[in-house]
Amino acid sequence: MRRLIPVLLVVSLAVATTATATADPQTVPNGPWVQDSQQVSLERLHSYDEMVKALRQIERQSNGRVSLETVGRSNEGRDLYLAKVGTGPTRVLYITQQHGNEPLGTEAALQLLQRLGNGGAGWDAILSKITLLVIPKVNPDGSERFQRENHDPDCSGAFCTPGVGFDVNRWHDPAVAPEANPVPEAAAVQRVAIRYQPKMVVDYHHQGSYRSADGDLITTSIFWPNHPDAPASAVALSRQMCLVIFDTLMHYGFAEVSQYPGTLPRGIARNSYGIRGAGSVLVELRGDIGQKSAGMLVRTAYASMGALLESIAEGTVFTQDPARADTIPLRGDFVENPHDE
């Protein structure tokens, strides 16, 4: 199969403008989060309505390659969309923007869906082996307010910020059935996972700005399930997926990749879908989304998405030595104000 990644790195799409208002960013321990020091610009990002319009346009123009369905509604009643492309037996699920103020994975997913919808011999060969499932902007209510949580000011209990809402990425625990889940956005992802049984899941987020041991700013951090209930086979596959992403991004030289220091809650998507038996990976993009870096970070997410699909289709992901994932450098020190550099 011919190598498609160089094509991935140069494809770009026009991104609509939006006048969405921003709220004060929420900062909580263990991230990922948007830092108070960031110069946040939303001019290049899709609002929820613009995203829906873009998805429908992609579906129309794809000649049947891309299909959409609604898989739930947010707490404020916005439809949650699942985009499907491909006919292969291996199902791969990408989810983006569980935290409303972490938007660039959504932008990358829209670009990828448009590219896949256009088809072509190389992509058609990949999509004959893979069915890609994408849930973009899982937290549309939070995204409209540019806040981490969903919008549920009456929430209470675990992982709730009173007067604001729930942290969606803490409510995927397999022990909590979707119908009993108080977070409808997380319940929608759960239902998709139960229905389609994806072999692999990748969850896109942002983190703050960190430095590598060599002094370079980290652009991407990745990690696998670390909960003890995740079966060894799922952890091994997750590590193999991380290696594909690491090798791809480091090879093309526009990313500095590290291990993310993941925590243990079962309800985190990375852990939850690993516990369910899937290869499950967290991808954290650098939190700085100013105009100067947003394009590079979208390209980083986009390249990781495409490279993983290609590697799955070729089977090379399964030839990686899972133990080598331990050699991915640990994330370094937090940079208090990267804009001063």
From TrEMBL:
MF term (GO), any: zinc ion binding
Signal sequence extent: 1-23
Gene3D superfamilies registered for this protein in UniProt: Zn peptidases (3.40.630.10)
A cellular component term, taken from the record's GO annotations: extracellular space
Keyword Hydrolase: yes
UniProt-annotated catalytic positions: E284 (proton donor/acceptor)
Occurrences of domain Peptidase M14 (ranges): 44-312
Cofactor: Zn(2+)
A Pfam family that the UniProt record links to this protein: Peptidase_M14
Superkingdom of the organism of origin: Bacteria
Family, as annotated: Belongs to the peptidase M14 family.
Annotated protein name in UniProt: Zinc carboxypeptidase
Species for this entry: Kribbella caucasensis
Species lineage: Bacteria, Bacillati, Actinomycetota, Actinomycetes, Propionibacteriales
